Structures are given as C-alpha cells and as structure tokens.
Amino acid sequence: PAVIRRVDYQPFGWLVPRLELDFQLGLTDTRVAATLHVERNPAATPTGQIRLNGEGLAPLEVTVDGQPTSLWRMAGDDLVLDLPGTAHTIGLVTRIDPAANTQLSGLYASGGMLCTQCEAEGFRRITFFPDRPDVLSIYSVRMSGDADAFPVLLSNGNLTARGDNGDGTHWAEWHDPWPKPSYLFALVAGRLVANRDTFTTRSGRKVDLAIYVREAGAGEEDDLPRTAHAMASLKRSMTWDEEQFGREYDLDTFNIVAVSDFNAGAMENKGLNVFNTKYVLADEETATDGDFDAVEGVIAHEYFHNWSGNRVTCRDWFQLSLKEGFTVLRDQLFSQDMGSAPVKRIEDVRVLRGAQFPEDSGPLAHPIRPDEYREISNFYTATVYNKGAEVIRMMRVMAGEERFRAGCDLYFDRHDGEAATCEDFVKAIEDGAGLDLNQFRLWYAQAGTPRVTVRLDHAGDVATLHLAQVVPPTPGQPDKRPMPIPLKVALFDRASGIHAGEQLVVLDRAQQSFSFPGFATRPVLSINRGFTAPVSIEHAAPVEDLVFLAARDDDPFARYEAMQELVVGHLKDVVDGKLSASERDAGRAAIAGALAAVIADPALDDLMRGELLILPSQTYIAEQMLIADPGTIHHERQALRGALARALEGEFVALHQRASAVPGGLNAAARGARKVKTQALVYLAEGNPDLAEQMAAAQYDAADTMTDRQGALMVLAGLKGPQRTHKLLDFYQRYRSNPLVVDKWFGLQAGSLHPHAIEHVKALATHPDFNLKNPNRVRSLYMVFAANPAAFHAEDGEGYRMLADLIIALDPVNPQTAARFVPPLGRWRRIEPRRAALMRAELERIAATPGLSRDTAEQVGRSLG
Ligand code: HT7
Ligand code: ZN
C-alpha cells in the first residue's frame, strides 16, 4: 500500500461549508443522498476538479447544480468530478448494506440498531466526500425509517424537526451549527431507551443529557440502571472542564449511545458520542472498581474532546496527538482530581511502561507525531495517546500549572474553529506560558524512550548528580539529538529521613552535572519524582537506598518506584545468573522486609498499599533486558512471589482478614480494602495454593461486588484445585446473559496462570459464546492471551500459532481489529533466538496470506522490517 507522508500535506482545493445528508434507513439497505455545497478554497492551488473519497461505494446518481452530469470518473475507490466554476452544488446518491459491514467502520448494524464510526476514514464508506479532517462543514441531516425498528433517530447537534410519514415510517432532522470534519459525523437509529438528566453550564445554558442503551428484549436484562455512574461521570466532567480549563459545553443536547459492537473504546462525535458498552455500563454487581474508573475516565475523555478535538481539530492525521495526547492528559488530570492522585499517576505510568515503552523499543516505534503511514488506523497507539500526554505533561511541569493554563487558553482562543497542528499547540504554550520550547519540539519528532544514566557523587559537603541521556535508534531514525528532560529530584538526609525540598532539573544535553551543597553525609537520591519525564532511569542505587525510599519517600510515586526498582534489580540479577543462592536469599529477604513494612505502615491507605504490593509486570522486567527469555523471567518472578508469600504468610492472611471486615461501598476505604484483599490472595496462591484456594473460594461466595468475585476467580483460575471448575461454572451460569461479564469469564481463563491455559483458550475459541464479529469478545480471549506470558510464549510456539491463526481468520472480517493483534508477535527481536524464530515464522505466514488488508499488511511488514 502507498505511503502517505506528513511533508506532502496540501490544503484541499475546495471548501465544503455546508453538507446536507438524507438517509433512508434499512438494516440491509440504506440509501444516502448527499448535497455538498462547495466553493474554491482561496488558500489552495486553483483546480477544475474535485476528488471525493469513497470506499466500496458506487454512485447511483451524480448531479452538479441540480443537473445530472457525466463529467465524473472513478479513480480507484474515489470519485473525481469536473467543476468548471468557483462554487457548485454536488448531488450524490449511494446505497449501502449496514448489516454486511463487519468492519464496524462507516454505517453498520449492531444488535438491530444502526450506528456509525467515522474516525478516521469511515465517512467515505457512507458517501463520497473529501474525507479529511481539515475540511469543515455545517451538517444538516434528515433520516427516515421504519418507526418500529428505529423509534429513536439521532445525529449530531440539535433536533430541529420530526414527523410521521403515516406509512409505518417516520423521520427526524438534525442540525449541527458547529462546522466539523467528516470524522465527527454520527448517526444512530434503533430501539433505544434513555437515562435523561440536565446540566446547566456556568453561563446558564441548560443542556439536556441522555445516555441511550438498547431496549431490553424479552428475557434480557435492562441496562438502563447501569448507566447511572456514566451519567454522574459526565456531569462531573462538564463541571471540571469549566473549572480547570475554562471550557464550557456549546450545544443544548449531549447524547451518548452505548453499542456492543465497537472497534475502540468510544467516539467523540459532536454532540453524539458513541460508546462501547464496556465504558458506559457499570454497577457493583457486574463491574469491578477498575471498570468504574474506566467508565469515568472514558466518559471524561470523550467529553473533553468537545474542545480538544472538536472545536479545535486536526489539520491532518499526522497531528493526531494534538487531540489525543492532550485529551488523555486532560482525562488523567480529571481522574487524579476525582480519586487518589498518586494512585492514578502510578496506574498511568504502569500503562505507559506496559504498552508504550515496548512500542518505542520495537519495530513499530514512531514519534508522537508520525512522519508517514499507510493505514492511519494503525497509529491510534500508546505512543500517540499516552506518550503524547506525557509530552504535554512535561510542558506543564516546566511551566507550572498557572502558566500552562494560560498557554492552553491561548491555544483555544487562537485556534477555535480551526484544523490545527501540533506545532500550533507548542507555539501557543510557548507564547501563553512564556516558555522556550525550541529544543523541546524534538519530543514530537524523535521516537524512542530516552535512557537517562544517573550517578550521585559525594565529596566534602557537596552532592553532585551526574546525568547522561541517550535516545536510542528507532526504525528510520538512526541518530538522535538530546532532548530536554525535566526531572524532579530530592536528596534525603539518611539520618533524619527528610529532604530540604524538591527541585526541578532539566537535563538538556547529552551529559550534565548538577551540584547540591550542604550534605555532610552522602544523601539518598530520589529522582524522576512523580514521573516527570517518560524516560527510563538507569541508576545503580544501593539496595539500602531503595529500601529507605520504599519506606520513607514523601512522594508516593517515588516510593512505588523504589519498590519496583528493588524487585526489578533483583530479578534481573537472578535471571542473568549473577547471584549465588545466598545472595538470592538475601535479595528476597530485603524485598520481604520492604513488603512487610508496606503491609504494616499505618500511614498508607489501602489503595496505595495495593499499588506498592504489585510486582513489576513481566513486560516491564523484559523491557529492562536487551534480549528476554520469557520462560525464565516468568519462572523467576513466580518463584520470588512464592518466596515472599511464604515469608509473609501470616501478614498476608491478616491483611486479608482485616480488609474483609471493611464495610462495602464505592468509597476509597472500601475500594482499597478490596484491592489489598485480592493482592493478598495473589501472593498466597503462589506460596500456599491450598490455603489460597480455600480463601479465594470463600471470598467468591461472600462477594457482594464484582471486584471481590472477579478477584477471587482470577486467583482460582490459576490454581489446579476443584474450586477452579466449580467457581468458573458458577460464574458463567450466574452471568451468561450479560455479555460484558461473559467477556470477563473468557478473559479470566485466557490470562490465567494455569499450566493448561493454552488448551483452555483453544477450547474457548469453539465455545458457542465466542464470536469473531464482536471485538470485545475477541479481545477478551486473544488480547488477554497474548498478554499472558506463560501461555503465549509456550516453548513449542503454539501460542504464536494460535495468535497468527486468529489474525488470518479475523482480517477479512474486521481488519482494524485484526491488525491490533500483530504487535505481540512483532516483539520477536527482543526475545531469545529460539522463540524469536518461531514468532518471525508466524509473521511470515501471515504476510503470505492472500488478500491481506492494508491494516494488517502494514503492521506485519513493519514487524518483519
Ligand atoms: N477518537 C476516537 C478514536 C476512535 C477510533 C480510531 C480508529 C478506529 C476506531 C475508532 N473508534 C474511535 C476515540 C478517542 O480517542 O477518543
Ligand atoms: Zn481520544
């Protein structure tokens, strides 16, 4: 497939200030009539032709200024039309079959309803149009359809008229006053019911809010009560954006629709967000505390896009991080404010390290503002989203909150109603916050996670911090320049356990030293506090320093980090065979001591305690090694867990008992208690499986929340005792009518530590509830499986084969989703040679499959490099 390059950007030759769409809806046959009002773009090179993107469409009628014309031709999938004058009206009619649209891009059918997904390039599957984000139009939409099948008819903006045709069909008209690109268009029609509420903005606009779900059929559960948390989250988001960013909602209606077949999490269509049910529906019986947080975060994210994405959109798809990185930062800050800020920060860093760091060190590495792509859907990545957020967070750290806000205000003022670039954003922050971001712009251009090497010297009463940075080579970028890296540091006096204040140092050269006078003895260094920079720190800190920080650092993130470092450092040494048996035992004892202190510390809340108990993930440990042996890492990580559990069995049992007595609810104390309860079981399962089985079964039976029940079942799913089968069966029978909970049931088995997990996954793929057409279900089985190191990296390569088979089967059904399964195989270069060869062979097998989609072909091609 052709490569699209950022440097080739040209403005489109035509403006389309107005667009009228008329839909005659049917599940298998929808007729779309589009009227485009076009005029020459004075900012572009004059042209007598217009090229309208299409995908899989045939025009049934083409008119110009109301007259049929033959002055058009197909150029591939696109329609090219001669336009002699400076302004015209183009009429186009197309027909589509939503029920046959298994790609879930464009207009498709899901559970009897019709809905759209247009980002990035789905609109061209509905009608011919300049399907690019810099063409902004005012949309008027009319739709008509069977009143029984589609009683609710929704689109962007405000409902302006509706009526009955008297023949069993009815119609509605929607008008969106805000110019928008085609990717923000949405239409939904179906048998829906709504949870309604209102919100009054700070300037007094009364906004009608509605969250729609599919009407329950006979014998089905009613989802409406499960939307209460989403509604409360929406209202909190609206208030927060006014207070923290000065951004107010700008329409009289805000609608959300939940659909169960969806390629991603949700979509920020103007005034009509479409959501994966997974990020709308939550109650304590069926959703975990983590699910509640995810709903709140995604609701906020999509709502915040109304400004960072919709009012100011992207000039082209290379600028995706302009809206996504910024909006992720906004949703992270929101969630920090809604709950425990340190815990949220730790969770966000865990996601970054688990998903983005591996991307940055592998064949798919790209800058947050990519330079080229073949299929844009492949660039909705952790790099564009999560590293993009970290890059903007660094600007905020350097500017301070107030000046950063001034920069954001300037950005929104300057670019409201425009399709902007990342450069526009940086310039606005530079001007509004009064920062020099000249060198900082490299963060947009260079891929790869910088490695910062740290050494602390002490002489006389001066401590000197020596820092050096290397930005590693990545595909297409062999040589890198040093970037500004803002690091918050503190130096602790060993005896008193306090520090003289946190300081921000900005490392902006390859090597730099910073001196701190006033230390009679060598202090303990705490660096990258709060994770101010998305870098990996290489610091051979003495174990006693890490133990000190794990117990006493006043920055909760740094405390967590010290705990992680302690474990990662130890496991690296064990895996590399560097430790004698007694050294290994001494290392384990040091970690056990630190864990015991964490369990006993009365100053910690349980949410934070739970974080400190979580061992570094296998992916993160593997990331620290040039070449990883997944089998050995898994074995040693589990062995360490077992040793810790045996050393602290009494503590873990007591912790579980204490937490079990905490009253329920959604407050922080109850949530924290649930978190440490399951953490305790996770340890005990490795140290004393029989005891863990009995305790987990009891927790399962006593559970009054999904958090407790799922936590217990997760532990049981990895054990071999009889309770595993009993409780898995019970869980399925209890929840078989709730698809989101059945997804959990698939996921628990696919991610389990059970030695036969691979066979379980194979069996589940033939289960009557498995469905290749439903992305949630496919992800619940295979994404979880690919993240299960013991099973996926099975020595004989069976895990790799299974994933490749899935990709080959899924690609013709849903290429966007299929392509998302390629990266786990793409990590082969960082895996020991025997497994690497097996992984590579599977990639080659996929590459050789005839008719591979552009999505999958690009990912496989880049992975084979
Ligand atoms: N902006 C939305 C991205 C999205 C998407 C991308 C590719 C394919 C399907 C998709 N559905 C939604 C979601 C967001 O980041 O807010
Ligand atoms: Zn987004």
UniProtKB/TrEMBL annotation:
Gene source species: Alteraurantiacibacter buctensis
InterPro entries documented for this protein: Aminopeptidase_N-like_N, Aminopeptidase_N-like_N_sf, PepN_Ig-like_sf, Peptidase_M1, Peptidase_M1_dom, Peptidase_M1_pepN, Peptidase_M1_pepN_C, Peptidase_M1_pepN_C_sf
Q: Which cofactor does it need?
A: Zn(2+)
Q: Which GO terms describe its molecular function?
A: alanyl aminopeptidase activity; metallopeptidase activity; zinc ion binding
What protein name is recorded for this chain? Aminopeptidase N
Q: Tell me where the transmembrane regions lie.
A: none
Q: Report the Pfam families cross-referenced here.
A: DUF3458 (PF11940), DUF3458_C (PF17432), Peptidase_M1 (PF01433), Peptidase_M1_N (PF17900)
Q: Which domain of life is it from?
A: Bacteria
Annotated Peptidase M1 membrane alanine aminopeptidase domain ranges read 230-440
Gene name on record? pepN
Q: What is stated as this protein's family in its record?
A: Belongs to the peptidase M1 family.
| Lineage, top ranks | Bacteria, Pseudomonadati, Pseudomonadota, Alphaproteobacteria, Sphingomonadales
Q: Which reaction does it catalyse?
A: Release of an N-terminal amino acid, Xaa-|-Yaa- from a peptide, amide or arylamide. Xaa is preferably Ala, but may be most amino acids including Pro (slow action). When a terminal hydrophobic residue is followed by a prolyl residue, the two may be released as an intact Xaa-Pro dipeptide
- Per the database record, which ranges form the Peptidase M1 alanyl aminopeptidase C-terminal domain? 544-864
Q: What is its EC number?
A: 3.4.11.2
Q: Which residues form the Aminopeptidase N-like N-terminal domain?
A: 94-184
Q: Where is the Peptidase M1 alanyl aminopeptidase Ig-like fold domain?
A: 448-539
Q: Which UniProt keywords apply?
A: Aminopeptidase, Hydrolase, Metal-binding, Metalloprotease, Protease, Zinc
